[in-house]
């Protein structure tokens, strides 16, 4: 691995040339990057992080929309629009899912193209809005890192999907997730599930030959010292080892050094994030009770 620290200005220039400086994640990227690598004094870790930064792929809004448009047009060729709903991929449990950011893009595509004619109620916000007469459901999500969220949803709603055609559209998928989803489809071959994706990614320490196996161990130990032992976010959720971001958010499958922030840590450790990962806060239960009580008073 070369000494990336002495080439940091060139690394930043190449990044800006690729992605510009106008979006939330690219604005002020030089200052963010310098603060980020200064989270550690370890020269080898700095070089590893910069090598990984060179490999990072950031999808902007236009690119995401182009991919979604291609997938939507392909799906609409296979379904009867009169009996079809479009939905973001649902979360399982009370967990934020950035796929909800995809649905406004579908509305933009529908409005801008002029030759995709969706009904007012074609797009829904959850499967509870889907009526029994619907034959096809087209889901959109940005990425599947492990396949776990998709499979849990399918298992939980097996009766719902049994009589419908299910189209799963992703911007990207990992090799691990594809294997798991294909396995589920084979075990449930009576279900009509169609998986579509544009990019397939592997774990970065598997394919990036500029990094050696010892570098993975070094970074693992570094993130373990920050998160604590056995944390699922080390090297990305469940060791996903991805280097992917979207204009609307950074998936937790991306190596956590890229999106970690001080607020996420239980102990008081200062950490300057490179890319802030958006995770909405939950309202405290006490506030929710007060809100409900106030609503009752207002309602008489």
Q: SSE layout and pairings?
A:
Blueprint: H1 8-19, H2 29-37, H3 43-55, E1 57-59, H4 61-76, E2 84-88, H5 103-113, E3 136-144, H6 148-156, H7 158-162, E4 165-174, H8 175-187, E5 192-201, H9 204-207, H10 213-227, E6 244-246, H11 285-298
Parallel strand pairs: 1-6, 2-3, 3-4, 4-5
Give a verbal description of the structure:
Residues 35-277 form the PRTase-CE domain. Residues 276-300 are annotated as: Disordered. InterPro entries: PRTase-CE. This is PRTase-CE domain-containing protein. Residues 278-300 have a biased composition (Basic residues). Strand 4, helix 8 and strand 5 form a beta-alpha-beta unit. The protein has eleven helices and six strands. Mean pLDDT is 89; it is low at 293-300. The longest helix has 16 residues, at 61-76. It is α/β, with parallel strands linked by helices and 300 residues long. The chain has a domain at 61-201: 3-Layer(aba) Sandwich (Rossmann fold), CATH 3.40.50.2020. The strands form two sheets. It has a four-stranded parallel β-sheet, sandwiched between helices. It has helices at residues 8-19, 29-37, 43-55, 61-76, 103-113, 148-156, 158-162, 175-187, 204-207, 213-227, 285-298, and strands spanning 57-59, 84-88, 136-144, 165-174, 192-201, 244-246.
């Amino acid at each position: 691995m070369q000494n990336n620290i002495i080439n940091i200005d060139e690394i930043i220039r190449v990044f800006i040339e690729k992605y510009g400086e106008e979006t939330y994640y690219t604005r002020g990227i030089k200052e963010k990057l310098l603060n980020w690598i200064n989270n550690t004094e370890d020269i080898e870790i700095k070089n590893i992080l910069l090598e990984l930064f060179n490999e990072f792929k950031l999808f902007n809004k236009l690119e995401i929309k182009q991919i979604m448009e291609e997938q939507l047009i392909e799906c609409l060729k296979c379904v009867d629009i009169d009996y079809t709903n479009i939905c973001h991929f649902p979360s399982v449990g009370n967990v934020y899912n950035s796929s909800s950011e995809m649905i406004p893009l579908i509305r933009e595509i529908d409005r801008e193209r002029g030759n995709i004619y969706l009904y007012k109620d074609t797009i829904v916000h959850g499967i509870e809005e889907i009526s029994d007469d619907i034959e096809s459901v087209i889901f959109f999500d940005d990425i599947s890192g492990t396949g776990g969220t998709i499979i849990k949803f399918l298992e939980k709603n097996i009766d719902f999907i049994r009589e419908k055609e299910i189209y799963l559209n992703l911007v990207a998928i990992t090799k691990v997730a594809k294997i798991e989803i294909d396995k589920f489809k084979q075990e449930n071959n009576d279900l009509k599930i169609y998986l579509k994706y544009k990019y397939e990614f592997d774990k970065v320490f598997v394919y990036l030959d500029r990094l050696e196996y010892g570098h993975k161990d070094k970074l693992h130990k570094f993130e373990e010292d920050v998160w604590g032992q056995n944390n699922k976010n080390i090297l990305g959720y469940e060791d996903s080892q991805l280097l992917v971001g979207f204009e609307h958010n950074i998936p937790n499958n991306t190596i956590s050094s890229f999106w970690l922030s001080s607020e996420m840590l239980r102990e008081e450790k200062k950490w300057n994030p490179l890319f802030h990962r958006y995770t909405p806060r939950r309202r405290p239960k006490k506030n929710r009770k007060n809100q409900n009580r106030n609503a009752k008073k207002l309602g008489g």
